[in-house]
Design a protein that fits this description.
Layout lengths: L3 E2 H6 L8 E2 L9 E2 L4 E2 L17 E4 L1 H8 L3 H12 L6 E3 L9 H7 L4 E3 L4 H15 L3 E11 L2 E6 L6 H10 L3 E13 L3 E6 L6 E4 L3 E4 H5 L7 E3 L2 E7 L14 E5 L2 E10 L5 H16 L4 H18 L1
Helix pairs in contact: 6-8
Length: 313
C-alpha cells in the first residue's frame, strides 16, 4: 500500500473534495493508513475498543449530536482520550461549526481539522474513491492493452511477434486502445485489476517501418480511453508444430499479476491466421464464460442427450 498523507489530499486537484484546513496546518504530514473512513459516534460516547488505526475521521450531524450530549465537565476528557488514538485528521462536513473546545484540543494533539461544504455521504464516497486509487498496489506489464467489446484485453508476446499490428487491425475494426508497450496495472478494492496508460504515450503507438503513430489523430478521439478492468490476457507466440494447443477449451490458464489470477489464452501465430478476429472471439467467449456459459459444456450436454435418445430406441 502506497503512503499518503493529509497534505496529499489537500493538494489533490483532480478530486472535488473541497477540503480546507480549519485551524493551523500543523500535522499535515500525518499518514492515512487505511481505506476505512470512520464516523466516531461511539468513540465520542466513550466506546474506543475497536477504534480503527490511521483512518480519516468524519464529523457530521450525528457526531455533533453525540458531542452535544456530553456534559461540559467531561467533554474535554473525552476529546483528549479520542486524540490519543492514531488519527490522521478530522473532516467536518456540510459546513457544520466545530464544537467548543474541539479545535483547541486537536491543535494540542497536532491533529489537522479540515472542513468541506459537501454532505457526509458524498464526501465519504469521494474520499474512498480517492484513497482507493492512490493507495492501490501497482505494477507494469509489457504488451498492448485494448478495450474490445467492453472487455479489457492485454495482448502479450515477445517483441516483434505482431502485437502492435494486431492492435492496429482491432482499432480499424472499432475497438479502443488503452496503452501500448508499457501498461500500468493497479489493484483496486477486492481482486480487481485496472490497466491504465503510463507517461506520455497514451495516444501513440510504435509501428515498425512507419515509426510513431498518433492513434487519436488517425482513428479519431473515440479510439482511445484512459483505463479499463483487466479481464483477459492473450499471449501471442510462434506456432510450434510439436506443441499441443488447446482445441476444446478445456485447458484453464492464468496469468498472475499482483497475486491476482487473470484468465490467459495462448494464441499461436502463423501466416494466414486473422489474429484480430480470433482476439475478438476470445473477448466475446470470455464474457460468455463470466456469465456461466461454456461452449464445451453445452456441447457435452447435447452429446449426452443424443446418446440417451439412441439408447431408448
Amino acid at each position: 500500500m502506497r503512503k499518503i498523507t493529509v497534505d496529499n489530499i489537500l493538494k489533490e486537484k483532480n478530486v472535488a473534495l473541497k477540503l480546507k484546513p480549519v485551524l493551523s496546518k500543523s500535522g499535515m504530514d500525518r499518514e492515512i493508513k487505511t481505506l476505512e473512513i470512520h464516523r466516531p459516534v461511539m468513540a465520542l460516547q466513550g466506546c474506543l475498543d475497536s477504534f480503527p488505526r490511521g483512518a480519516v475521521q468524519i464529523l457530521g450531524k450525528e457526531e455533533m449530536i453525540a458531542i452535544s450530549k456530553l456534559k461540559k465537565d467531561s467533554r474535554r476528557d473525552v476529546f483528549r482520550e479520542l486524540f490519543r488514538k492514531d488519527i490522521p485528521c478530522f473532516v467536518v462536513t456540510a459546513g457544520i461549526k466545530l464544537p467548543k473546545g474541539f479545535g483547541k484540543e486537536a491543535e494540542k494533539a497536532r491533529i489537522p481539522v479540515l472542513r468541506t461544504s459537501l454532505s457526509t455521504t458524498r464526501l465519504i464516497n469521494r474520499i474512498f474513491i480517492f484513497l482507493d486509487d492512490r493507495m492501490a498496489q501497482r505494477t507494469t506489464a509489457q504488451g498492448v492493452m485494448m478495450d474490445i467489446y467492453g472487455m479489457g484485453i492485454l495482448i502479450t508476446g515477445y517483441s516483434g511477434i505482431g502485437k502492435s499490428e494486431c492492435a492496429l487491425e482491432l482499432l480499424k475494426r472499432g475497438h479502443r486502445l488503452i496503452a501500448d508497450d508499457l501498461v500500468g496495472i493497479k489493484q483496486r478494492s477486492g481482486s480487481i485489476l485496472v490497466a491504465y496508460f503510463m507517461g506520455v504515450n497514451h495516444h501513440y503507438m510504435e509501428v515498425r517501418g512507419l515509426g510513431i503513430i498518433d492513434i487519436e489523430k488517425v482513428f479519431g478521439i473515440g479510439s482511445v480511453r484512459n483505463a479499463i478492468r483487466v479481464d483477459l490476457v492473450i499471449k501471442l507466440e510462434d506456432w510450434d508444430r510439436t506443441k499441443e494447443y488447446d482445441r476444446l477449451g478445456l485447458e484453464k490458464r492464468y496469468k498472475a499479476m499482483l497475486d491476482i489470477k487473470i484468465p490467459e489464452v495462448v494464441v499461436p501465430v502463423m501466416a494466414g491466421r486473422n489474429l484480430a478476429v480470433i482476439i475478438e472471439l476470445a473477448a466475446k467467449n470470455q464474457r460468455l464464460k463470466e456469465e456461466g456459459h461454456y461452449a464445451i459444456r453445452e456441447l457435452d450436454r447435447e452429446l449426452i442427450k443424443i446418446t440417451k435418445r439412441k439408447k431408448k430406441k
